[in-house]
Design a protein that fits this description.
globular, binds 5'-deoxyadenosine, 474 residues, alpha/beta, binds iron/sulfur cluster, 19 strands, 37% helix, 13 helices, single chain
Length: 474
């Protein structure tokens, strides 16, 4: 039998955690008086957009408790929001924890916390307990909303406090959030994943798929818009299987139509759709919409039907190509980007050639290429025919080179066009420029100052620089 999930926010729990924030505020105040300076906190995010959104929630809570947020990890409270999709992300966290330990020796009152996907792995928690005893707090992905409560608990006692849940039954949104960008925001529309691709740890660390009620999503976006947000990114591991656990069975295209109607909202993005769930209604809604951005991130993973089957991806090479080429025909100005894994167990040069063939035929606007990473507990980890490192390196370089050529070719097609650009930042290398994103996600740099941040401006794309443009505001 399927588990039953609560799809609405638990308001009582929200009120409870708000009380802990008040208590935390008092604790932070007392400490800062004792220390003679305001307490600082640093949140470091690894991984995907979901984690970025979770970090905004944690930052909102910390700032509400009176912490001064800083980018420096030599702070009074440091939290790592971790990712475990690939092993190198895990290794990076272990390395950085070693550095934090030296900071903590200088500042014994410093507190260190870990959350996110890594903490949902039993072996990680064991390792933290055994080798990193100076960590104060470890919590998981299903109980993030309890952070205020854990924080208070951590401050009142010594030793490491750990709370990891195997699954979630509740949705608790509506706690304070501080956005990295005032003008754009991620919005969780669903949590977890039911697809169980054989290489992927996400279903084990993020749990089963659970969608939020459309009314609650709309209400959250309306509030964001009244707070200055122009662009939202609807977040989920498989956004186009949204709604399966809802009584109303609202589907993703319907949700998009509801979001479209929100006055004042200018741009809608979504991440990530699953190829075989990308139906004609998705194409229809993208055609009719004035707000949905012209970008689809459609993870291919492999172009070989044999490998796709072993990956438990639910489409063949031909089905993916049919879909991608249909998207190119029906939505010609939409950028298509993808994810590709090289070195999956059993992969041969023939399989890589199939992947290269798909890349050539679709000519992706951009692609993230990953070396297969063995994740303990996933079915692929125990497949016998793991690929030799020398082969992976050669294949990876070949895939990357083709992907980059395609990306350049696609980007160059925009030369001389006029585009609406949402300005995100002052350029980090040249302060006389600002940086923004076109609807299709291409970056554009052009002369301007910080007053333009958050504005959507019209820009002429003057000079193609490979993957991005230099432009001029019109
Ligand atoms: N090894 C390499 N890449 C992986 N991804 C997920 N799991 C693994 C793994 N074990 C990639 C997929 C996915 C992206 C978010 O990360 O390409 O789409
Ligand atoms: Fe992982 Fe596959 Fe789910 Fe994506 S669809 S999160 S790759 S299991």
């Amino acid at each position: 039998m399927r588990e039953v999930f609560e799809t609405k926010t638990d308001k009582e729990e929200v009120a409870r955690q708000l009380r802990f924030i008040e208590e935390g505020k008092q604790i932070v105040l007392n400490y800062s008086e004792q220390e003679g300076h305001p307490l600082t906190a640093c949140v470091v995010t690894f991984g995907c957009q979901m984690n970025a959104r979770d970090s905004e929630k944690i930052t909102g809570i910390l700032a509400n408790m009176g912490f001064h947020m800083t980018e420096s990890e030599e702070a009074d409270f440091v939290l790592y929001n971790t990712c475990s999709v690939r092993d190198n992300a895990n290794q990076k966290v272990y390395g950085k924890l070693g550095v934090l330990n030296t900071y903590k020796k200088r500042n014994p009152n410093m507190k260190i916390a870990l959350c996110g996907c890594m903490t949902q792995e039993e072996s990680v928690v064991e390792k933290i307990q055994n080798s990193y005893p100076f960590v104060d707090l470890v919590f998981g992905t299903h109980n993030l909303y309890k952070f205020p409560e854990y924080f208070v608990y951590m401050m009142k006692r010594d030793g490491m406090f750990i709370d990891i849940w195997e699954s979630a039954t509740k949705i608790v949104e509506d706690l304070p959030v501080i956005r990295k960008y005032p003008f754009k925001s991620g919005v969780n529309i669903m949590f977890g994943c039911d697809k169980f691709c054989t290489y992927c740890i996400v279903p084990y660390v993020r749990g089963r798929e659970r969608s939020r009620e459309p009314e609650e999503i709309i209400c959250e976006i309306e509030k964001l818009v009244s707070d200055g947000v122009k662009e939202v990114m609807l977040l989920g591991q498989n956004v186009n299987s949204y709604g399966k656990n809802l009584e109303s069975k609202t589907k993703f295209p319907e949700l998009l139509r509801m979001v479209e109607k929100i006055d004042g909202l200018e741009r809608i993005r979504f991440m990530t759709p699953y190829p075989s769930d990308f139906d004609d209604d998705m194409i229809a809604v993208m055609k009719e919409s004035k707000k949905i951005c012209k970008h689809i991130h459609l993870p291919l993973q492999s172009g070989s039907s044999r490998i796709l089957k072993r990956m438990n991806r639910r489409y063949t090479k031909e089905e993916f190509l049919d879909l991608a080429l249909k998207l190119r025909r029906e939505l010609p100005d939409v950028a298509i980007t993808t994810d590709i894994i090289v070195g999956f167990p059993g992969e041969t040069k023939e399989d890589i050639d199939e992947t290269l063939d798909v890349i050539r035929k679709v000519c992706f606007d951009n692609a993230f290429t990953f070396i297969y990473s063995k994740r303990t507990g996933t079915p692929a980890a125990s497949m016998p025919d793991q690929v030799a490192e020398e082969n992976i390196k050669v294949w990876f370089d070949e895939v990357l080179a083709l992907v980059q050529n395609c990306a350049k070719e696609r980007t160059a097609l925009l030369q001389g066009q006029i585009a609406d650009v949402l300005v995100e930042d002052v350029n980090s290398h040249d302060a006389s420029l600002v940086t923004g994103r076109m609807s299709n996600n291409t970056l554009v740099h052009f002369p301007g100052d910080k007053s333009l941040i958050g504005e959507i401006v019209t820009v002429k794309l003057e000079e193609c620089k490979g993957f991005y443009y230099l432009g001029k505001q019109l």
